[in-house]
Design brief:
Layout lengths: L6 H12 L5 H4 L8 H4 L3 H10 L13 H16 L2
Helix pairs in contact: 4-5
């Protein structure tokens, strides 16, 4: 299941994808979303990072609906499954 994308989510998706698309992900020092470090986080932790922000990633809790955030978490899990 791929999340619905809107202009509001484009920036977040760009940042999330930067982690798996070198060299931009490396330039931002973003974590690889397929890594065990990221995948070892609970769904609640990942949703919290998206909602409240973390490090260079801004908070999207006021811009995204909870369902959209949950879809981004699910998509992050799907990416790891495609290793």
């Amino acid at each position: 299941m791929r999340p619905r994308y809107t202009k509001r989510t484009a920036s977040c998706v760009t940042r999330l994808m930067a982690a798996v698309l070198p060299p931009s992900g490396k330039a931002m020092k973003a974590k690889d979303l397929k890594s065990s470090e990221v995948q070892g986080k609970s769904d609640a932790e990942l949703a919290g990072f998206i909602t409240q922000g973390k490090d260079k990633m801004p908070a999207f809790g006021k811009k995204l609906k909870p369902d959209d955030i949950n879809q981004l978490v699910a998509y992050t899990r799907e990416m790891a499954a495609k290793k």
